[in-house]
Each structure stands twice: as C-alpha cells, then as structure tokens.
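Sequence in, structure out. Go.
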Amino acid sequence: QVQLVQSGGGLVQTGGSLRLSCAASGFTFRSVSMNWYRQFPGKDRDLVAGISPAGDTTNYITPVKGRFTISRDNDKNTLYLQMNSLKSDDTAVYYCYVPYYNRWGQGTQVTVSS
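Output:
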C-alpha cells in the first residue's frame, strides 16, 4: 500500500526557515520521481519542485528558486523540502506527491507571519 506521511511545517516569521519531510512506504522509492506541491486557500494545488529518482535532477517554480531545496534520501525512503528566506506569500498547505502512483501526502500547513 503506497503511503506518504508528512512531517514538519508550522508557524515561522518572515525570513525564517522550515524543513518538510515526506516518509514513503509501500513502493520502491528510489525508482520514482517525487514532487512537492502547495495549495493556497481557494486555489488548486500548484507544483513547487520536483526531483528525479536518483536525486540528480531537480526543478523549481520561479518564485522559490534560490530559497527552496528539494532533496531525497533513498536509503531512508524520505523526501525533503528545505525552505529558507520564507515570505508571507509562501503561506500554504504543502503536499508531497508521487506521480507514478498518483498518491498524495496528507498535507502540512506552513504559515509565515510578517
């Protein structure tokens, strides 16, 4: 059974940092690409970042480039999103996603206060 369990997130001040984690189980984690999405209130989920199975290729949306880092530990079956220099515009619910299995994590709230 494919499962993605998220942790991290919370409340942080502008300019602060947070790290999100996504623990995967039920599939061969090292064989699939992974993504992070975020969802603003009343909006659809938007792709934030993606990473290849080996972790050697990453991509980001423009608003987070240079501030967010997606990474993975294939030995621990865990995906990460390091978020630095956070802005109020980053306030959203963040989700990890495995496209191959079309499964989502449960989501975690990130709130950046000014």
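Check: The chain has no helices and eleven strands. The CA atoms of residues 28 and 77 lie 8 Å apart.
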